[in-house]
Amino acid sequence: MMQAGRPDVLGATPDESGTNFAIYSAVASGVELCLFDDEGRQTQAIRMPDCDRGVWHGFLPGCQPGQRYGFRVHGPYDPEEGLRCNPAKLLIDPYARELVGDFEWHTAVFDSNADDSAPYMPKCVVRGRFHDALPDGPEIPWAETIFYECNVRGFTMRHPALDEAARGTFDGVRHADVLAHLKALGVTSIELMPVQAFIDEHHLVDKGLRNFWGYNTINFFAPMPRYARGDAVAEFRDMVRAMHDAGLEVIMDVAYNHTGEGGGQGPSISFRGIDNLTYYRMEPDDKSAYVNDTGCGNTIDTDHVRVRQLILDSLDYWATDMGVDGFRFDLASILGRRRDGFSPTHPFLAEISNLSSLRHVKLIAEPWDPGPGGYQLGHFPPRWAEWNDRYRDAVRSFWRGDPGASGPLARRLHGSADLFEASNRSPAASVNFVTAHDGYTLMDLVSYAHKHNDANGENNRDGHSHNLSNNHGVEGQTDDEEINELRRRQRLNMLATLLFSQGTPMLLAGDELGHSQCGNNNAYAQDNETTWLDWSNADAEFTDRVSQLIQLRRETPLLRLPTYLHGTLETEDSTIDIFWCNRHGEPKQDEEWAASRAFSVIVEETMTDGSRRAIAILINGRNQRIRLGLPETHIFRDWRLAFASCRENEAHLTGTALSMPARSIALLFAGAG
Question: Is pTM beyond 0.70 here?
Fold first, then answer.
């Protein structure tokens, strides 16, 4: 017999004598707790005995961790009024810590019929409290952070050191050889694409495909079972422990903007059947129609206090119990949307920023969504960093050879002060990237002029057409050595630009290996060798060059300044100056930026003890070799070549001038340190 429980802690909370269950539904007339055996058979259906302010709760004596369960919600069913309670549908507890079993697309999972959906639904699992504390993360300072975006399956499915069972799993990510690669590369913070439980879209299953990226979440607490050998929760924590032991941060990509239940014709999996009008935004004049600011069929309603609490509790859980060091928020503008649009002062953004358990974690916004007024780059609160797509486009455009691209590139090299300085944020707020999961890999960016997404089954209509890419003469792979050499240099040019820029760099996993997706720039449905990194054919020499770039950034404080530099900056320890020069080493004039494709930037620091040091970034975006000079009046004449994207001995430094091949970038040092 179920007893009176506690309404203050939602979800399933066990103790030595039983488990407390609590679920919020303001529209329910009754809620059943359904228990299942390990074979998926329902063994009991128990009415929740109490309801306090919309929280249905009860305590079940003897119920212990490992018990499988779900909910059935009784109440009004009137889709025209946004009411979708149907007790024939087994529903996932929004606070479930673990899910077992697969979701199966069957007519029973839709709430328009009276068929029992339980046989086709994952089951929730009661989880006990953790008895071991995870070690604290390394807390990498923002100025030293280098993100590395990767997918659990894509990163590990073809790694030669892993056995079959470990491939595609959290256990695979923590393998010693995998971690050794990350450490040797020099990145600091591993940004995992979504690992919260998600489902494959119906149209993908019909085509024999499945969701690879993971942005189709159905629960905000449970790790994705597909990424585990057995116990996904324990294996995720083991991975985090191993990452922390290796000195690496774990960043989670989270999609709190929509769920996998889709629009009005989607399945009833959890939120829709529990309390549709609480969890989702509906059109003001039509409660049957979902607001679709996400482009995914529905939009989470962050104006509702219960929804905000759910997400805050989820963030707290992943940070506190699961050891996560930061979050990248997919379509983050949704989190700051009111009915009348985005607001940087939305209380939910403030609540996330001020949550005590998140005080040391990194918060990163993807600062746009497809809805009206959804592009909000530069408008997030002070604690937040943001993905900077203008950086991506400026770098691609310049190295492709587009006219008028030097000025935009200089603004991005400088740290995008035009976007972030007004909100009193440092250059670290700009998460700079050239490639990410959405779009071309770096190899494809220099190998394809057009997208090749036919394998997605959408007649190549999906994916962006504005890629700012260049195939350099041949579409796709080629045996032409001259083209391949230019492509290699262009990849180094863009990565060097990324790592020499002020701001926080992010690399896409596999770019250091030469990974190609054969021109597919929207590989969300390609859970196969298209997206799985081919470690056996990795370009070791290129990987070493990328590692060299990362090491240079790590060892060169002038490449990662804590504040924006305009002219001269006085600090407690030194004076720092910045100079922008044309190809002749003269101060660059405003009118030169429009037509110029060769320039240099010098950052010079004078210490209080009189010692000096400087760096110079020299960029030749022209199609021929040129001689780039540094100022003759400059105090330094002992410049040293630290890096050049061309082959060894192709760049020649003589005094204060560097002879550089066409389309190349170089870094020079001078002075002490």
Answer: yes
